[in-house]
Every structure is written in structure tokens, then in C-alpha cells.
Amino acid sequence: MASLVRYEVNQNPRAPRSSLEVETIDIHPMPAAGNRGGVNDVIRSMPEVNGVSLTWEDLWVTVTNGKSGSRSILAGVSGFARPGQLLAIMGPSGCGKSTLLDALAGRLGSNIKQSGEILINGHKQALAFGTSAYVTQDDILMTTLTVREAVYYSAQLQLPDSMSKSEKRERADTTITEMGLQDAMNTRIGGWGVKGISGGQKRRVSICIEILTRPKLLFLDEPTSGLDSAASYYVMSRIASLDQRDGVGRTVIASIHQPSSEVFQLFHNLCLLSSGKTVYFGPASAANEFFASNGFPCPTLQNPSDHFLKTINKDFDKDLEQGLGGRTPTEEAIDTLTKSYKSSEAYQEVRRQVAEICKKDCGAVEEKNKRRHAGFITQCGVLTRRSFVNMYRDVGYYWLRLAIYVALSLGLATLFYDLGSSYGSIQARGSLLMFVASFLTFMTIGGFPSFVEDMKVFGRERLNGHYGTSAFVIGNTFSSVPYLLLISLIPGAIAYYLPGLQKGAEHFIYFACVLFACLMLVEGMMMIVASIVPNFLMGIITGAGIQGLMILAGGFFRFRNDIPKPFWRYPFYYIAFHKYAYQGLFKNEFEGLTFPGNPAGGPRTVTGEQILSDTWQMERDYSKWVDLGVLLGMVVLYRVLFLVFTKTSEKIRPVLRALVSARTPKHTATVMINPSATPLHGENL
Ligand SMILES: Nc1ncnc2c1ncn2[C@@H]1O[C@H](COP(=O)(O)OP(=O)(O)OP(=O)(O)O)[C@@H](O)[C@H]1O
């Protein structure tokens, strides 16, 4: 067996600390885990105090793809992860690494069936917030924030109120420095079209955010992708060293592609997968011997992990057939290794370990290790501030829209300039108000792409339990209010005063309030759309379609008495917010005015009230304030609906999946680590 050297990263407790200073980290070589004795010695030598042991037995994951039937992604894999240990999941691309992590973390998609038994400390249970964390493969971050802001806001959201602001800041700064990001602290993350930090740095920011709470169980999906070998080593060693802090043995499970030999030496256990089957599970230090004993020795000077992956990657077997590889066909090699593994001591040891963990009653993690996040009010405050900053810095969120609104209102103002009070101005006033209530509110869709980016961040953070949907809705709503007020007041004033609509501050304030309510309302509607449709293009099309139908039903293009009764009048006319916007704006404009009569004949003068009833067929049995009230009620209703939709899907999806899994024959019931952790509808947005 090759001699291995592990590096243990120790914290120097005497190192001076201030809010900006960082813990000093010394790296000392220590004997390899595999050299201290047999498999059992390695496993038992690790600290397990208060830790989380995870076991999975005969885990099957099957994907159903409509008519094309179902396909097994994981085929009866078993394994365990113990506190104080780093388990690496390796295998060729597409072998099921992420799926295994997702299954263990209870995050599988709704089209996926899962069976087998996943236990935490031998129990079927859900983990509380802060006990486990998951770093996904994609870096979903708020691109407008700097590294420090992103991590600090996250610390404020995740860490309990019992920690002071300076303690949270210190934890954020320490974590940033641990991940080697001190030089990029004040650089914006950047994203589409705006260059910011590098891909590898983004990876490290994602890790920073998830390790802020120092979770006892940490899932990492390709934590080192995009990192050079030195950065990979430091990142992994610091993740491994997390278990040295606070005396708690941390359980780390990481899928990893191409570990350097130094990184490989950090792994305690290795789970090697090929096409969803276990090729090897056991001490990483013994994998070389396993391959050698089956006729696949690692060539001298070759990185063992490269050798393992090369031996079991069958994606390029065509090249082999054409004589480019000059080695045993991969299918054959995999077959030999999987069969050998099933009859090996390593496999028996896995079974023994799983049985031992399940037998040893370590207690329900939930009870012992319950952690708290920041309080609801703190979360709402932090989310409002963060969202406000994001909206301020993202030109596409509101500023661009404000500019377009100003341009449009100037267009309106010049087209309808100084309407006067002639008979002809009746029609012009109606058209102007209709345009304001329809098209200006329709334009709110322009902010949807930016909102979708927000939703992605929300999806990741909610799935990781940082905060709930209610806090997000409140944060998003309050942060948008100043911008929407600005849009309602500036372009609103241009479109109101230059054409010369009814004089009086009260009339203008009402006009701006209706515009504001409609803008808020459409934003709420787009939130609901974003939570239902799978991508933002579909979101824009759906949102535009819904609004188009509402404009048609609003009572302007077809007056109230002419609207066909089934569907259009009952109920759509009453559901469409345009009805209340038209009614309110028209009443606000015409009530109290008098116009000359039709020059073609009829009375010499006509009152605004008559015009409202006879020309526009408005409902005059209630006041314009009721219309505004209904609009504001709808603003609240739409946001509550978003909340209900998101929460319902959270509850329904796991139940549906459990039902589907229960119908799968042969295997036992499925356990999810966090039953509420299901992918958000709009996750792919
Ligand atoms: N929800 C899903 N629907 C359909 N197929 C899926 C789904 N999830 C995973 N798969 C398929 O399962 C296989 C394994 O995917 P997975 O993402 O687990 O691979 P991986 O080993 O993590 O790959 P990589 O290293 O490239 O990220 C792939 O072929 C993938 O297409």
C-alpha cells in the first residue's frame, strides 16, 4: 500500500483577533489515516462527539421520463459517512455523484423515484437548520454584491440573534479569509455581462456562505471545480479542518472530479461510482491496493485518482475499439471491479459499519444540536436592505425602466399636450388614461429577468434553510416600494400635468396611487408566474399573455354591458385588475368636470358623471376610493398567493415523492434528511 501523508490544519488559539483579523492557521503533517492500522482503526480514531453519522443502504434512484420509461441513476448503493471524516464521491461525469448527494440531502427532483434507507445516527429524521448545509454545483449568487457584502448579509441571515453584529462580521471575515478570498473582498461578484470575480472565486464564495454556521453535516458538489491545484488543496484542507474547531466532528461528503494527489490524501473514505453502481467504497488509502489486486495497478508517478477514473470511464470506449487505448475494454474492467468489490472485505466492512451506526443509538440530532437562525424581523430587515442595494446597483431592475417610463410619459405628454376641455378632449382623456393603466403597468414585465435572478438566489437560500418565503416576500416588497414610488411620481407627473388632466393635488395623488398599486400588483403577479413556469422566457410570455387578456376584459375595448357574459364578464372582468384601474382613473378624471355637448346635436353641456355612466359605462354606485382599495387588496392578495403556492409546493412535493417511492416494489421506505427541502418550482429559472 502506498504510504500516504495527511495534513491536519490546526487553529492557533493564541492568535490575536480583531474584527478584521483572521485566525492563524498552521499546517502540520501528520501520519496518514490509513497508516495507523486497519480500516476499523482509521474509522474509530475520528472524533464523533455530537456529530452526525449518515448511512444509506440499498439506495436506488430512478428517473421517469414520460413515454421513454424509467432509468436507474443509482443502483442499490450503500455507504456511510462519519463525523470527523471526509468522504469523497468520485466517478466519471454522469455516473450519479450529484444524484447521490441530492438523495442523501433530500433534494431530488419530483420526476425522480427513490428507495432504500437513509438514516441519520440510525434514525429516520429531518435535520434542523444549521445542522447540515449543501454547496451546489452552480454558483447562484447575487451578482451586484461584493464578496464581503454577500458573505456578511448571509451571516446576518443565518447566524442567531444571540450573536452580536460584530461577531457576525468577524465570522464572515474569518470565513472569507479561510477560503483565500481576502484580496477579492471588495470586488463585486459580477455575472452576465458584468465582469467580477473569477469562477473559482465564486466557487469559494458559495462555500463560504454555507460554512458560516459551521454545519455538522456538509455536502459539497464539486467544491474544487474552477480552482487551480493549490487553491483546491487549501480549500479542501480548510473544509477538512473545520472538524478541528469547537471539538465537533464534522461529517463532510464531497463529490469531486479531479483531485490532485495532495487533495486525494485528505480523503478518509472514497466512494467510487460508475453508471450508478459502486465500484469501490472504503478508505481512500486502500483504493490503490484494491485496483492493483484486481489487475489494474496504478502506474508509477500517476495520480491515483486519475488512474481510477481512467479505468472506469467508458464514455470513450469507441476510441478503445479503434485501438487508441490499447487496454482492457472499460465495460469489462468495471464489471470486474464491481463484482470484486461486492465480494471484498471493504464491502463487508461497509455493511458492518452501517449496522454498527444504526445499532449505536447516538440520539436524534435534532434534539441535541438544534440551532437557531436570525429572528424573523432581523431576516426581513436584512433581506430588505440587501434587495434594496441589489435593485439600486442592477440598472435593469428599475433604473432602465424609469428611463423608459420617462420617455413614454414624455411621448404621451407631447401627443396629448394641453387637452383643453372641448368635447373632443373626452375621448382623448379616456385614451390617455387607458394607456397609463394598461401599457405603463404592462411595462413592469421589463424587470422580470432581474427578478428571476433574485428568485434563483432565493431558491438556493430557501433550500438551504437560510430563511423562509415570508421573509423573502416582505424583503422584496419593501425594497421595491421606493423605486415604484419614484416611477409613479416622476413619469406620472409628466403624463398628468403636461396634457392638463383635472387640476388639484388630490386628483394627481390619486392618479399616482393607482399607478403605484398597478405596478406593485403586476410585480406580485410576475412573482406567481416565476414560481410556476420553468424559465424566464416562458415567464415573460405567460405574464404578457395574462395581462393581455386582462386588458381585453377590463371594460375599455368592450364596454361593460357589451362584454360577453360567460367567462369574460363573469368572472374575468372582476378578476382583471384593469377594471378597477380604469374605473378609478376615469372617475378621478371626469367626476366634477363639465364639457360642451356633442356639436352634432343633443344637450349644450354634459357633466363628467353623465360621461362616466353613458359613454364609458362605468359603475357609479361606489366611489373611486373603493377601486383603489380593491387594487391595494389585490397587491396583498397576489403576494399571499405567491406565498401559498411556494409553501404548498414545499409540502406537496415530498408527499408526492414519498407516495411514488412507496409504490416502488422491493425496497424499503425512503427517508429524506429535510422533508421540506424540495426544489423550488422556478429553480431552473
Ligand atoms: N432529474 C433528472 N431527470 C433526468 N435525468 C437525470 C435527472 N437527474 C440526473 N439525471 C441523469 O442522471 C445521470 C447522473 O447525473 P448526475 O448529475 O448525478 O451525474 P454526475 O456524476 O454528478 O455528473 P457530473 O460530474 O457531470 O456533474 C445523468 O445522466 C443525468 O442526465
TrEMBL record:
It is a multi-pass membrane protein. Residues 54-300 form the ABC transporter domain. Pfam families: ABC2_membrane, ABC2_membrane_7, ABC_tran. The chain crosses the membrane at residues 398-420, 432-452, 472-496, 508-530, 536-559, 625-645. Keywords: ATP-binding, Membrane, Nucleotide-binding, Transmembrane, Transmembrane helix, Transport. PROSITE patterns: ABC_TRANSPORTER_1, ABC_TRANSPORTER_2. This is ABC transporter domain-containing protein. It comes from Carpinus fangiana. The lineage of its organism: Eukaryota, Viridiplantae, Streptophyta, Embryophyta, Tracheophyta.
